[in-house]
């Protein structure tokens, strides 16, 4: 016989009794319509995007475009605040006891000074800072070392190109020379 929930062959009544709660026993539940609307819209958009973006490339393109749009909005919101901070917040150098030493400067000025100090620092032939007085005679400024390294790399590339070209030209010239010499020898041999 199939199960029938309305039919109970037992004599006992094992259904729980419904107890009415006393007022104030259950806390009031408040629902924010805007939050529900945002969740519904989010779920609808997620469902729509997942159906439309069955293709992985399209899904990745949509995701990438969304990330770029979000990053752009964040940048637009943060950039004015960041510019304000870089221009208004000041730093003052102190000694080991916390006493101010030097003039206060903005973060932007401090960054520029730090870069300039680093570029003007004396370095050895490897670009490492000079730590002893013995190496000062061969020392040069870091910016000079950087320019020399860049130029050196370009010069090496040009020399390599010239050497390759020279080898090719010498090989062709040598081939022509051998060919002409052999032709001359063949003419002499065949003329006898």
Based on helices, strands and strand pairing, what is the structural class? mainly alpha
Q: What average pLDDT do the residues reach?
A: 76
Q: Give the CA-based shape.
A: flat
Strand order of the largest sheet: 1-2
Largest sheet, if any? 2 strands, antiparallel
Spatial gap, N to C terminus: 124 Å
DSSP E strands, number:
4
Given the structure, what is the number of helices?
4
Please state roughly what percent of the residues sit in beta strands, choosing from under 5%, 5-15%, 15-25%, 25-35%, 35-45% or over 45%.
Answer: under 5%
Rg, please?
Answer: 42 Å
Low-confidence stretches: none
Order of helices and strands: HHEEHEEH
The share of residues in helices is 55-70%
Compact overview of the structure:
With 192 residues, the protein is mostly helical. Helices cover 61% and strands 4% of the residues. The mean pLDDT is 76.
Describe what you observe in this structure.
The protein has four helices and four strands; from the N terminus they run ααββαββα. It is mainly alpha-helical and 192 residues long. The protein has a two-stranded antiparallel sheet. Strands 3-4 form a two-stranded antiparallel ribbon. The longest helix is centred in the C-terminal third of the chain and has 50 residues, at 142-191.
């Amino acid at each position: 016989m199939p199960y029938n929930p309305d039919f109970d062959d037992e004599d006992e009544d094992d259904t729980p009794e419904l107890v009415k709660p006393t007022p104030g026993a259950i806390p009031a539940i408040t629902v924010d319509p805007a939050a529900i609307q945002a969740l519904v819209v989010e779920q609808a958009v997620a469902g729509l995007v997942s159906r439309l973006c069955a293709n992985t490339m399209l899904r990745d393109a949509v995701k990438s475009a969304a990330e770029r749009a979000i990053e752009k909005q964040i940048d637009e919101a943060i950039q004015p605040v960041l510019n304000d901070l870089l221009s208004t917040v000041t730093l003052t150098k102190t000694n080991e006891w916390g006493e101010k030493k030097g003039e206060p400067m903005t973060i932007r000025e401090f960054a520029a000074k730090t870069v300039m100090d680093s570029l003007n620092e004396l370095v050895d032939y490897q670009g490492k800072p000079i730590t002893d007085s013995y190496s000062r005679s061969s020392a040069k400024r870091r910016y000079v070392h950087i320019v020399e390294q860049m130029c050196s790399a370009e010069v090496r590339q040009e020399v390599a190109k010239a050497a390759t070209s020279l080898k090719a030209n010498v090989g062709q010239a040598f081939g022509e020379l051998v060919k002409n010499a052999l032709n001359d020898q063949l003419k002499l041999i065949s003329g006898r």
